[in-house]
Structure formats: C-alpha cells, structure tokens
Amino acid sequence: MNSPASPEPRPTSPPRTVPSGRGGAGPRTLRSLVRASEEHPADTAASVRRLLGYLTPFRREIAMAMAWVVVTSTANAAAPALTGRVVDAALGAHGDSSILTVPMLALVGAYMVGWVAQRQQILTLGGVGQRALLAVRADVFAKILDLSVSFFERTESGDLMSRLVNDVETLNSFLSATFRRVFGAALGVLATLAGMFWVDWRLAFATVLVVPVLWLTTKGFSAIARRAYRQTRESIGDVSSSLAEELAGVRVAQAFARTGVNRDSFSGRNAANRDANITASAVSAAFSPALAVISTLSVVTVALLGGWLSASGVVTIGVVVAFFAYARNFFSGVSQLSALYADTQTALAGGERVFALLDTAPDVVDAPGAIALEDVAGRVDFRDVRFAYATGSEVLHGVDLQVEPGTTLAIVGPTGAGKSTLVNLVARFYDPTGGVVSLDGHDLRTITMDSLRGRLGIVLQEPFLFGGTIEDNIRYGRLAASDDDVLRAATLARASEFIERLPDGMRTDVGERGALLSTGQRQLVAFARAVLADPAVLILDEATSSVDTRTEALIQGALRTILKGRTALVIAHRLSTVRDADRIVVVQDGRIVESGTYTELLAAAGPFARLHRAQFES
User: What is the span of the domain harbouring residue 597?
Assistant: First the structure.
C-alpha cells in the first residue's frame, strides 16, 4: 500500500499568532514594526529623487509655476516694508492724506499681485501633480501585471492593496498639494529674509539669530519622525491585510465559532496601528510647540532691539512695525514648513513602499533574444524536469514526459503529488529548477511569454469571472472576436443553453467575481472563454471537480468537440472524466509512476487501478 502523499508545498507567509486578549499585541506589534523599520533603513535622498523624477517630464510647467511662486514670494516680502512706509507716512502726514496715497496704492498692488500669482501657481502645479500621479499609478499597475505568480503567493493581498490605495494616496497628496506648498513656503521664507536685510540688517540679524537652533531642532525631530511615519505605513498595511483575510474567511470563522478569537486578533493589529499613529502624532505635536517657543524668543529680541534703535533715532517706527510683520511672516513660513514636514514624511514613507513594489523583480522573465512563436503544433516535452518552490523541498524529481500534438494527456494522482506543478510549468508561471520544458522543441525560457500564453488556454477548478456581462467575460479570451464568434464559443462550450434562459442573455451582469452565477454556470463561461481563444494547448486543472453531475455531463460533451485536433493536459480527480484521454499518467511523490490508456492501466492493476478502486468501490 502506498503511503499518503504530503500536501504539495507552497510559499507561505509567516504564521499569524493570536493575542492573549482583546487589544493585546498581535503578530506584528508596534515593537515589531519599529524593529522592522530599523532593520531596513531607507535612503531618503533616493526616495526624494525618484518621487521628483515623476515631475521632470513637466519641466516647462514647473518652471512657469516656480516663476509665479517667485512673484508671490516677492510680493509678500515687499508687503511688510510697504506697511512700514505707510506707517512712517501716516506719522509724518500732519493731516495731509495725499502723502499716504502712493505707499497705500503700492501696498494694495503688492497684495493683488501676490493673490493672482498664487492662484496661477496653484492651478499649474495642481495639474502637474495629477499628471505625475497618473504616471505613478500606471507604473504600479504595469508592475503588478508583470510580477510572477510566486510574488502573489508570498504577498498578502491586503498589504498589497494598502500599497496600491493608501500609499499611492499619500503620493497623491504630496504631488498635488504638499510639494507646491513646501516650495512656496521655503521660497517665501527666503524672500522674507531678503526683505528683512534690505530694510535693516541689524534687526534682520536679530530675527535670524535663532536659525541655528531651528536647524538643530528640525534635524533632531527628523530621524524620529521618519521612523514614526514609516511605522504608520507598515501598520496600516498589516491592518488592511488582516481585514482582507478575515472578510474572505468570514463564513469559515462563523462555522467554527472563531469570530471572537478573530476579533481579538484584529484588535491586536488595530492597536498596533493606533499606537503607531499616536507616536507619529506625538512627534508632530512636540515639534510645533518647540518652534513656537523659538519664534517667541525671536520676536522678543526684535521688540527689545527695535525699541532701543527707534528710541536712539537709528530707525523709524515704521521699520520696527515692518519687522514685526517680517518676524511674523518668517516664523509663519517656518511653522508651515514644519506642518508640511509631517505630510512630506508620510509621503516619503508611502513612497518607499510603492518604490519597493516597483523594484520587485519578477521571478519569470523573457530571456534576452527570446523568440515569438508564430505557428504552434502543440508538442509538449518534459526532460529530466525538477522543481522546488522557494520555501520548500523539491516537488518534481526528474520528470520525463512527451505529449504529442493534438492528443489529450490526463494527469491523475493523489493530492500533493505534483500534478498542478506540471501544468504550471507549461504555462510558465514558474521555471523549472532543473531540466527543460519545451513546446515544439523550443525551451519555454527561449520563448516570449506573450507568445507562449497567447497559444495556451487555461480553465481552473475555481473559475474567475470579471465584473461585467457574460459576453464581456467570454470575449476576454479574444478581444477582437465578433458577436457571432462569441455566440459560437458559448454554443461549443454548452453554455448557450443557460445563457438563453437569462432575461438579458449575453448582456447579463455576472456581478463581482461572477457571484450572480452558479459555480457550474461560471465554469461553462470559463470554458467558452477558453474556446474563443482557440489555443493550441488547452490546460484543464480540475475543471469539472466543483460542478454538479449534469454540468459535468455538459462539459464532457463539449470537450469531445473542443479537444479535437488540440493538445490538452487534463488534471482530474474524477477518474470517470478521463476515459477518453489518449494517454493517462499517474503522478506520485513528484514522479511519473505509470502511463497508459484507461483500459491498459486498469488491467495493469497498479497505482491507477488502486486509485480507481478507492474511488468507485468506497
């Protein structure tokens, strides 16, 4: 008797532990997130360069916007000096209001110019930010489509969605608003400094005396804030991942009365996210008061020195008034920069996670000089093929197998024997770790993946339908297909019978993931989609195991027509479904242990006969 085969290994995420009580620490507590952040320090300058790199295609628009920023900053910097002139003119007017006319008009003109320039730079940079974000999203989506199957097996879907939604949204905020405001505030501070030194260098030095203290304070908070905001991005990714998993498994949780335990587990992750955000808020909250104290000291210094210089007749009252406005503007700009600093840190933390995704290299790529296959006969060869998943031991051990063009090969065997791995190698979802898988004599690694997969049709045990109509999902097999082609494919797949009974026929909405159709109906639509693609090689991975007997009979009838003249690899647990196969191979413990027709294998009384007996005599 054969020993039971162990389940086929798959890359897995680290096991999730359950906290001891509500609100307790989950598998990734704040401490673990802090440790993770410290273990993988990010290159801030590199992140900034990559983020700003998305703005470089819009140099002309940015240059124009920067010109408007300069005009805005200059107008705002001139306003306090003009205010001082107005004060001095008012003090010396002695009832002659005409003396105030010129400085007042100049002051009003400065404010109007500043308003118009600010409006223009907001409109220009806002549009640039959205177009840059469009490029970011396009790159992220393109990367997702290019990544190998193994990436999605080892990456939690919730964390991935958090990167695609939450982290990209932080970049949206930065590119659309924060970048503009940071640049404007920084240039405003510089223009204010220039205005102060132009009016009176002594009071200007008194105002900026605290700048070294400001710089040291900002530098001290910088490292703490960056780490804190990186922790918030990590923790929200963990919360999103947990939510996605719990929502997908809610029926199982209810069936096993595990909702309370799952609630506590989620509370731990939620608490870690709460703590990370509180820490980040605490850092930000401590930064602003520190700046307020420093700015107050500077204003007091200006008041004392300005009062003494005015009393000594060195400067006028208007100059002192102007410097109060300058000091207010200077520290208002610095405070604005400090507030925007938190937004920038959040954007950089989110950007790091997005860029880490963009930098992920696919495990399976086109080799240099890969060729595009034109005509495919459909001969599939395995020569001494070995394979091991990244996190497990070897699954296939020196498999040799030939599938002739236009024939049907059935692959049977116990769970975990390596059946799905064989067909996954044909689809090149993975590359073998040893040996060669070839199509028509070409090593699959020398064929472009687009041309390879364009010649394959795959129907899985769990059919996936996209949101839209039945017609949309069938046409997904060949987007240029006509309505007649779609109808013909549905008829060949025996799907037209149930489609005609639906009120909207082909125009029927299938719902999210095909939820509005039964499992059997979804499977028939999936078959029609594969038929429309007209593949040279058709892969059926347990395609009938989850449907009822009547639907299985329909599919079997359809297959007799569909498989004619086409190479097919059929994985089946129901041995009755492979009676008509040209050849059957039995896979056990990663090796082919038996091969022949249905009748030959039963007569041989070997592994296939034992599987047959266990299935039909139990």
Answer: 380-616
